[in-house]
Amino acid sequence: MLQLEALRIEQGDFTLDADLEVAEGARVAVLGPSGSGKSTLLSTIAGFIEPARGRVLWAGRDLTHLPPAERPMSILFQDNNLFPHLTVARNVGLALRSDLRLSRADWTRVGDALARVGLEGLEARRPAALSGGQQGRVALARVLLRARPLLLLDEPFAALGPALKAGMLELVAEIADEAGATLLMVSHEPRDAEAICERTILVAEGRAEAPAPTRALLADPPPALRDYLG
Amino acid sequence: MAQRPLALRRGAAPAVLAGLAVAGLLALLNFGSLGAVAWRAETPGALGPADWAAVRFTLLQATLSALFSVGLAIPVARALARRSFVGRGWLITLLGAPFILPTIVAVLGLLAVFGRNGLFSAALALVGLEPVQIYGLHGVVIAHVFFNLPLATRLILQGWLAIPAERFRLAAALGMGPREVMGQLELPMLREVVPGAALVIFLVCLTSFAVALTLGGGPAATTVELAIYQAFRFDFDLSRAALLALVQFALCAGALVLAWMVAAPSALGGGLDRPVERWDTHARVLKLQDTALIALAALFLLTPLAMIVANGAPRLVALPAPVWEAAVRSLGVALGSTALCIGFALALALAAVRLEAAGRAGAAGLVEASGVAALAASPLVVGTGLFIIVFPVIDPARLALPVTALVNAAMALPFALRAVLPALRQSEAQFARLAESLGVRGVARLRLVTLPRLRRPLGFAAGLAAALSMGDLGVIMLFADQDAATLPMQLYRLMGAYRMADAAGAALLLLALSLGLFWAFDRGGRIGAAT
């Protein structure tokens, strides 16, 4: 279980409060207008922003002061999820060892992960030689190999076309299911949330609400969400 | 400070410590040696008439050099700004070349053109005129204009290209002719750009040693830097050298403060590759005028280099052994200096970026400033200080090469830092979070992320550092004796002995090595650099 315990984030004039729990294995969307603090919330959970007060806990363990890499989670950002100067295989291999000193068996696992996301044989390519969708799959292969129990997505597929994005989200759902991972996914598209997330955290007006069933939320949106949905 | 990213408070200490150590070393080098100098200058305020003459000459030649460089650069920059022609990009690249051209090579080339037996003097003789007086004030100023006319042209060209194209369109729509465009658009720009460009050149010429050494000299044409050298080499009068070093430092610091107030422009900026579309410059006479100006400027820059190649090529294979030995020594110094310079630049840049990220902007600024301080320090002053420090302990001649490599590295550092720091900031902005989230840090971060991302600027900076060190004729002159000459020093000796054929061959060798080193490093940074 992920717990945000009386969490308060302050950045200049901006504040965001969160006091909520996310069940293990759940797939939860983080929905809200732009500028409401969705990415800030994820960055805080991931350890890039130190909260003004409150705690972040996973399975009862306090993560609040751990550096990002030591937290039991993987995160994909809006962009720059791959190092452009490293090959596809080396980008994925970082999941196993951050200094890339991999054994033969490790490289085999890298190849298997790439095959799982449908990128067999592209190990030696550089990201620039791949399409946007393929780049997303490389990042997912790395997530797969890292096998952390919590997966945070900060709209990594926002630049993809609708069909491609739907395919990627399906793959995300599969990977999360296979690993039994908990998924927290920022979105400003209610349809994306509906597609794979049974629950949704609404972020608006300085608060992150506790996860509520997505369908019910979208069928009868509270005022803040209604303004945003239009 | 509640929002300070967690990742930046942890594990960043080694990078910051290394940067602070380098900053301390540089401060010691630039200012500590000045302290040694001050301590040694026993009788303050006792400048003799010859010393005052040196101060006057230094200011006079620097002023004239700045005025001529900028004055000539304005029409050339205007011609380049408003004309497009085959080879324009090539010519603009060439304008960057004097920066890495060994001074003594250029001097030899200029002698072949403007010297008593040079091309230009021969042409003057054809029409019954006396040859140019190349030694003394004339020669010093000609050489400085040769080096700085291209720099001034690039700086002013930047100003011209910074005028928005819409303004020229508007001027055309309003029916303005060249005169009105000059008054409304170009003069205001020049008023902003020219003082800064002139000051930069003034500062460069204040610390110019090799030109004064080769073309100046004598009571009428001695700069302060040359006087320092002479006090050392001929009189071994350490306290007088120290006093002069203080004077030189005061001159540089004064000029630098002035330059700060005028906001000196940056010469390394890119984006000079497109001429501005103009509607007021189609007159035939203007075209002719611009063509002639560009041709003359190219001739002025290229002829001396062509003479080096023409005179040097026949002697290249037959150069005496000491020249080759000096070349090997110089290569070693240049490579050592490059390694130091790149190491310093990386350490300072990493520390500055880490401190910035941690909200310590003041400390970051100090770290950066320590790398740029060498712009104010004169190599000869630093050399004097180091000499005073090591002299009681060890024979300075034994340290000649390491000291030269160190001082050269410090002198190239401002330019290296200017290339590396923005690239590192960009790389961190893009990839620091990804690296942190994957736990890529420390040495692995350097190897897998930082160095690959900085390949191009590091290659460029290494090229500059290597070429500048290869051609340097400065601090080595204080320290070295007969056995430890570098190639520029050996070339200077050949010139002094009037062995002009050997000198021409050695000059070509030095030219090839300097440009070759720059090319190899810069190219190495580009090959395989994925963006």
Report on this structure.
The complex is a heterodimer of chains A (230) and B (531). Helix content of chain A is 35%, strand content 25%. With 230 residues, chain A is α/β, with parallel strands linked by helices. Chain A folds into two domains: 20-50 and 64-72 and 153-230, P-loop containing nucleotide triphosphate hydrolases (Rossmann fold); 81-147. In chain A, strands 1, 2, 3, 4, 5, 6, 7, 8, 9, 10 and 11 form an eleven-stranded mixed beta sheet that branches. The model of chain A has no long low-confidence stretch (mean pLDDT 92). Chain B is globular and about 70 Å long. Chain B folds into two domains: 11-40 and 316-531, Orthogonal Bundle (MetI-like fold), CATH 1.10.3720; 51-305, MetI-like fold (Orthogonal Bundle), CATH 1.10.3720.10. Chain B is mainly α and 531 residues long. Chain B contains 22 helices and no strands. In chain B, helix 14 runs antiparallel to helix 15 (361-372). Chain B starts with 5 loop residues before the first helix and ends in a 5-residue tail after the last helix.
What is the fold's blueprint, element by element?
The complex is a heterodimer of chains A (230) and B (531).
Chain A: E1 2-11, E2 14-22, E3 27-31, H1 38-46, E4 53-58, E5 61-62, E6 73-76, H2 88-93, H3 104-116, H4 132-146, E7 150-154, H5 162-179, E8 182-187, H6 190-196, E9 199-204, E10 207-208, E11 212-213, H7 214-219, H8 223-229
Parallel strand pairs in A: 2-10, 3-8, 3-9, 6-7, 7-8
Antiparallel strand pairs in A: 1-2, 1-4, 4-5, 9-10, 9-11
Chain B: H1 6-9, H2 13-40, H3 49-82, H4 88-95, H5 103-114, H6 119-126, H7 137-162, H8 165-173, H9 178-206, H10 210-215, H11 224-233, H12 238-262, H13 284-312, H14 321-357, H15 361-372, H16 379-390, H17 400-438, H18 442-453, H19 455-470, H20 476-479, H21 487-496, H22 500-526
Helix pairs in contact in B: 2-12, 2-14, 2-15, 2-16, 3-7, 3-9, 3-13, 5-7, 5-13, 7-9, 9-12, 11-12, 12-16, 13-22, 14-15, 14-17, 14-19, 14-21, 16-17, 17-18, 17-19, 19-22, 21-22
